[in-house]
Amino acid sequence: MTYRRAAIPALAGGLLLTALLWWAGASAQALRLPGTGGVISSRVAAELERWLIPWSYDPPSALPLGAELSGGSGDAAGSGGSHYLTLYSTGMQIRFAAVFAFFVPVALLLIRRLPPVHGRMPATLLAVWAWGLVAGTLAVTVSAPWLIAADGRGSYRFLPQLAGVIASGRQALVATALVAAVVTVLVARVTAKGAGPLPQNIVPARAARLAATVGTAVVALSLVVLSYQPVAAEIQLLSPDGGLFAEPGDLLRQWLLLGVWVSPAGVPLADWLLHMAVTMLLLVVVWWALRRLPALLTRATVPAMAACAVCATVLGLLVSQLVRASTDSLASLYGPLQRFAGVGEGVPAALTFGLVAGAAAAVTLRVAVRHAETAEVTVEEESAARP
């Protein structure tokens, strides 16, 4: 598919995702109306508001942000508060612009290399959905400094505050990114008509399995090694002395850990085994996706493999989190929303290790295919040399 054909659905998906997130943020006001408690419970309304506030232009507090920190009174206090409100508004503008800017280029790459035709439509839909989550998380990240400054405490524990802001807003992204992905793929299906035959990749099965294994091993480094509770605790407590960046532990946890798992001590063995099985499900999803990618992609380039590996890791996270929430023995104690509140965690780590996994898988695939071709040529030459 040409860039011109792929650009139309990518732009449509980016605009829709941005509009849906803006609408979701604007809807947070309705949850504060007096009659809301009569329609839905106050607990559900509070949980929904917490999910939507990161995308709302309204400040989280009824008072002007930072007004109490201005140190003056009257006009001075009002002026100080208006400066903080301006910072907040600027941060939200950057957030919504960044959602569009991060979503469109990679969606364009995915649609071009993984067009939704010839049985690829489910794969394209899942990949674009996963990238919508990543784009939203990156947008929250780049806009976080403005929102932290707007709170008036930018110089106090900046990195832990940054980690907390990055972790917010993911629940709304799961739903809005899915809707945007459906529309993107449907538009791409229309624009792909008449595009001509697509190139077909013939990849040796052994090379594809080897590439998938190498890529999955990279993801396993975060899931099995770094996310092991004693190692995760060391990362969390990492705190060099002095300076603004004196507490990187929380931020490193966001970008390095796909989850946390513990040894069976202190928990029933059956529960621990179930937890580990769900955790390993992520690796199964990643391996299966990387195994299928070389044949699905019109061209298995390093950027395409890296982007798809990120999407595969995010999908693995979503699958494992949904299964864990559904099988949690304490789920009956939670509300319908609290049960799935953890869905969408770990996206920064999925981005970090997915990029490395995809690049490693692409390089391994090229080397393995080249080796297989060389071996085949050698066998043919030896056969031709025989009398």
What does it look like?
By secondary structure, the protein is mostly helical. The chain contains 13 helices and no strands. The chain is globular.
Please work out how many helical segments DSSP would assign: 13
Structural class: mainly alpha
Coarse shape? globular
The H/E string reads HHHHHHHHHHHHH
Could you list the spans in which at least 5 consecutive residues all have pLDDT below 50? 62-78
Q: How is this fold's topology laid out?
A:
Elements lengths: L2 H24 L9 H4 L2 H11 L22 H39 L7 H30 L7 H9 L3 H22 L13 H22 L2 H8 L12 H8 L12 H28 L5 H26 L19 H39 L2
Helix pairs in contact: 1-4, 1-7, 4-5, 4-12, 5-6, 5-7, 5-12, 6-10, 8-11, 8-13, 9-10, 10-13, 11-12, 12-13
Please outline what is shown here:
The chain is mainly α and about 375 residues long.
Defining traits:
387 residues, mainly alpha
